Amino acid sequence: MNHDRPNEYPIPNTMKAWVLGNPEELTLVDKPVPQPGPAEVLVRVDAIAVCATDVEILKHGLPALIDGELPFNRGFTPGHEYMGTVVRLGPTVDEFEIGDRIAVEVHAGCGRCQRCREGMYTSCLNYGYRDKGHRANGFSTDGGFAEYAVNNVNTMVHVPDDMSDEEATLIVTSGTAMYGLDVMGGIIAGEGVVVTGPGPIGLMGVGVAKALGAEPVILTGTRRRRLETGKRLGADQVVNVNEQDPVEAVRHITSGKGAQYVLECSGAPNALNEAARMVSRGGRICLAAFPADPVPVDLAYLVRNNIYVFGIRGEGKSATHRAAALMAQKRFDAKLIHTHTFPLAEVPTAIKYARERIEDAIKVVVKIREG
Amino acid sequence: MNHDRPNEYPIPNTMKAWVLGNPEELTLVDKPVPQPGPAEVLVRVDAIAVCATDVEILKHGLPALIDGELPFNRGFTPGHEYMGTVVRLGPTVDEFEIGDRIAVEVHAGCGRCQRCREGMYTSCLNYGYRDKGHRANGFSTDGGFAEYAVNNVNTMVHVPDDMSDEEATLIVTSGTAMYGLDVMGGIIAGEGVVVTGPGPIGLMGVGVAKALGAEPVILTGTRRRRLETGKRLGADQVVNVNEQDPVEAVRHITSGKGAQYVLECSGAPNALNEAARMVSRGGRICLAAFPADPVPVDLAYLVRNNIYVFGIRGEGKSATHRAAALMAQKRFDAKLIHTHTFPLAEVPTAIKYARERIEDAIKVVVKIREG
Amino acid sequence: MNHDRPNEYPIPNTMKAWVLGNPEELTLVDKPVPQPGPAEVLVRVDAIAVCATDVEILKHGLPALIDGELPFNRGFTPGHEYMGTVVRLGPTVDEFEIGDRIAVEVHAGCGRCQRCREGMYTSCLNYGYRDKGHRANGFSTDGGFAEYAVNNVNTMVHVPDDMSDEEATLIVTSGTAMYGLDVMGGIIAGEGVVVTGPGPIGLMGVGVAKALGAEPVILTGTRRRRLETGKRLGADQVVNVNEQDPVEAVRHITSGKGAQYVLECSGAPNALNEAARMVSRGGRICLAAFPADPVPVDLAYLVRNNIYVFGIRGEGKSATHRAAALMAQKRFDAKLIHTHTFPLAEVPTAIKYARERIEDAIKVVVKIREG
Amino acid sequence: MNHDRPNEYPIPNTMKAWVLGNPEELTLVDKPVPQPGPAEVLVRVDAIAVCATDVEILKHGLPALIDGELPFNRGFTPGHEYMGTVVRLGPTVDEFEIGDRIAVEVHAGCGRCQRCREGMYTSCLNYGYRDKGHRANGFSTDGGFAEYAVNNVNTMVHVPDDMSDEEATLIVTSGTAMYGLDVMGGIIAGEGVVVTGPGPIGLMGVGVAKALGAEPVILTGTRRRRLETGKRLGADQVVNVNEQDPVEAVRHITSGKGAQYVLECSGAPNALNEAARMVSRGGRICLAAFPADPVPVDLAYLVRNNIYVFGIRGEGKSATHRAAALMAQKRFDAKLIHTHTFPLAEVPTAIKYARERIEDAIKVVVKIREG
Predict the structure, then answer these.
(1) Is residue A342 domain-shared with residue A302, that is, in the same domain?
(2) Å from A326 to nearest chain D CA?
(3) Is pTM, for the whole model, over 0.90?
(4) Which letter, b or e, does each residue of C334-353 get, where b requires 16 or more Cβ atoms within 10 Å of its Cβ?
């Protein structure tokens, strides 16, 4: 416990929050500060990172549609990669104390459907039904491009004192990468892992895979600077697909055997076919990204080679906790992917930087409060 | 032990065996009877079923190419779905006795590669390297369209006295279906399972799924007679895709929730996309068949809905033993898929019947010896 | 849906319910009918079975103590193996309709602790904290020796029209047996399973194991009549430990190899040591019962033989749903263990019969309402 | 590949080897250098560590008796924790080259029994049957207290150039610790792990657990110096059980919640009961050590708290490869447990040091050849 922090925080009645009008229309408004219910707390949002999915939501609405309802013109506040300070406890909460610094994961499952009951809360069958207990802040419930947000206690993880607000916003991204490795088996020390696509999840995937002892960790991509960042995060080898055939490169690096795992983070049209040829017979592939439209897939190759393909959305199985632990232990330097910072008033600019990769932006963070 | 059986069998020096010349050229020749090595036995083949893969091998060669080597004009004997009688024991064998009736599974892994070491012997990294201990009879080593064959003891399962030779040839097909259910999790009582495609594996999949308590078991296909056979094997519902949209039908049958599992046995171009829409969020799909060429796949749907896809080849994890146990316990009537019988001399006719589905052939059995 | 059932039920303000005073003191009182909260329904209890744990609770209090609080003199109503009719829906409930017949499982986890989050809700770390959402009816919240009870929707399973009230009370017992098989791996077709102890869980374990294709299923015990019941439930072999050494018997039946699994349901002092010698190297044992006091255990044997031991309490991982499916499909005749029936007014007599095994009572059911 | 190494090694016909006569009688003799068979290589033993099990074998014979056969007076050479140089390849071997430095794991399964077929080769049902392919060097086949030994290729792992011979002998010990963590689930980042007993396996368990991100890692023991070594290997907290009650200490360190996992390496009579109270409800315990005689165990506690107990013998599931990878990546300093070194001629002295913990010996290494 940090004895310097206050045990009470003044909480206003209203707050600044960005809300979504028509597609692509974000407006900064005054909204009532929300009230935490049972098992929930009020979080003062201190910083939030922009995710590519935020851009999708602005444009197209939610990735998992709820009875066709779209978020437009409903006063919805997006943003899901945030961290902050616990400032009010809902009824029955003793898992956190006022003043705790926390980072979030996205999904609070309903707790009553078959999937939640089996621990697969990111696949909650009541996705989007707030009344039934489901929350996916920034997706189906209000998110973090605002001064305050409400979180279920099971969507929060403690942030150590020596981790900056900016770095803490990256925990959820690391958690997604970690979940991808977990669903493929999770026991990866000494195994070859290829990460395809050096976006934020891919780069964190490199960091997590190396932290867990994977070897070799191979990163493929097109941008030299990002591949360099991948090296600093722990990649043993990087492959610039503009210069080398990535399948051949992986086969060469692994002495012809192929890797055990591919964490696909590029969403490129041929990524799955290539991934299949990067793994050895019986290998596994996690799809953490995807092309917008259907793409030709060589299913015969998957079947003949006993390959398993795992689609994931989000950061289930409490992977955020494991990722946070590795980051707290300084096993990899997540900060390397944080490239730009803006204040709350400039969320649209922040999103523009992330979207257009201005100045080779990787992770753009909105710092809402001085830490 | 059956006390009526002889404990010694006269074994000739040569045997009748079909061998592959050029593509599609099968010739009945005299070949030396092979000798079992350590951990191997000599099996007198009593009956063998024709598999769709046999047809592929005749036409195109092996599905898992070994350094580009093709089986043509090498004196190779195809056929992998056989049963017979143990007539000679190789050195060190005490797992079986002379006179035992047995059915086979295909893969004897090398026992020394990473995959075999982890129990994934159907993904053996030394596939095709006979010298290293790998055998896949009918694929990379001589198979069962012959009077005798050699088998590793770990590829055999006992056949009870009251099971006919013909039925015993179907154990390996049931084993493949069972393996498909196993890789998706295996604990399926009370869960919805859709089997797409009423070929032999699909129909056995219906039988196994129902035997293990799945509910509802839904079978989709185009041929009325096969769907009827599916019902007799335990399908709670059948869907004729010529008459109904199969995704809508499954959604309707499951009250909108979708099934938990799909065992894809059709190889239809849109089968995976449809399967993805048949399962609920977080559902699982096993691909036991595949289209010959790449097909458009909506990967975004897989990712957004946390769907896992398992390619399988063969009948790993000793699924053959479990399938044999269910058949011995008469949990489903595998014999329903056995439609035609021919003698050894008529293997080409048997294959023709299976290939062209003459008289709606499902499983065509070659009976080599009177049982 | 059963169109004959009413869609509204008259619900009184008070109900008859048994409450616990001092240890062993049960009194029938009038209590207010409870109100279902969010995700909960009001169940009209139609029948309830007596469990050995009920006797323990009467005598000693709860098996998982909550901060030392005992249930005595708090107006607590025990009883957890019940079934009934949904008569009122709490807010947000659409999983069930008024008039649905249901059976229950015990544990509604808190949904917010690490264990619930990973799907291990029977190990909820907030066990007993009603305020945090945990319910274990008949343990930490009011149970079913009463006319009405409140249940979370995730603790209920549908009962088919053709299953009697009495049989439906046995679902939860079957669920516990099924969970025991699940935690050991769950894929048991063709594998040897020994059930030690022919109490209710053991006998249901025989039924479930056989339904899933285990072979051989061996039941050990001392009472001839119960072993006979075991045979009728599917045991391939029974061993009377008064007449045979059970370890030798199992070794003999399995041709010296030992079984794959033991489901220990006797609680006998030497049961674990014997179970270890019944399984083959690498075998697994589930402890579903236990001796009251510490007993000598040969840990060296467990370690040297790579044996895993799984303690279970209750019926986690939705095993109740799977058990209910097998019972609905009439895979085994659970009714064979139902030996006696009493009305609500005679709960103490019912418990006495169960406790003292009067007239060789196995399952004693209290029928609260005519079905 | 190290280009400096020779590609041919002179191999004598005979070698120096220690053999076991009567219990406790070790004699240095001249023996023929063994010949590698298929899938085997000849290893020039360069260094070997003494294990507590070696002492047991000298005294009592093999831990897994083979039909009652004891190793005494059979010319058996013990020793299983060795490393060396590949100097001759058996038929078909291409996994290694002459000149490769390797470390070993113990068990080459038979590859044909049910356990090997499922990847559980340390539980091989043909344990001790050399003819059937099983090898457990230093247990049932000749080990490494000799100049040469034969190893199956699946029992060897590459040693990097910058790892000393002495350190490489510790790989198998780390592998055992890693296997213990693997069988409990293996995904341990951010989870509390208690290691009880600071012997070699326990200390390596600390190193591996910390390398994989466990937190906190707590080590309990009695010897101050060993606990200090544990701290240097990564323990966040150490508990001297002579000074503190270890259960209370663990509960205190974990803020009352308990740890997730206990790796029991002490073999103390009350260790399992204490471990059960160290973990939270639903926690897991691996027994990597054991008391010689049966001890009182509170099974009721295990059952009531859903605790799983995993007995392990050896280093299955290729854990040695994963441990070697972490050591090659210098994730923990295994060398800290290497305390003494002797030449081949002084094996009895080396064993005496290890056995009597002379000068607080932890790992005593016999250096057979100058590296």
Answers:
(1) no
(2) 6
(3) yes
(4) bebbbbbbbebeebbebbbb
